[in-house]
Amino acid sequence: MTEETKTASSVSIWFFIGLSLLVNGVLILGAGVYEVVQPPPEAGRVVLFGYHAGVWWGALLAVLGGFYCWHFSPKRVAK
Asked: Can you give the pTM of this predicted structure?
């Protein structure tokens, strides 16, 4: 995108992608923490339940989304 086509009110698409990652990460992290606090019965657990993939994946998405939101924030980019 050239400077001629960029307006003062334009927002980077990466900001919205970061926002989406952040929201999904928080939701997955919350579900993962709930699963750690209230584990399913032994018969209903998957083989790798002990790794708590929901917690790790949710935390990774939340951190990545938070970074994208901060880095591509409209107020930060405008400076």
From this structure: 0.82
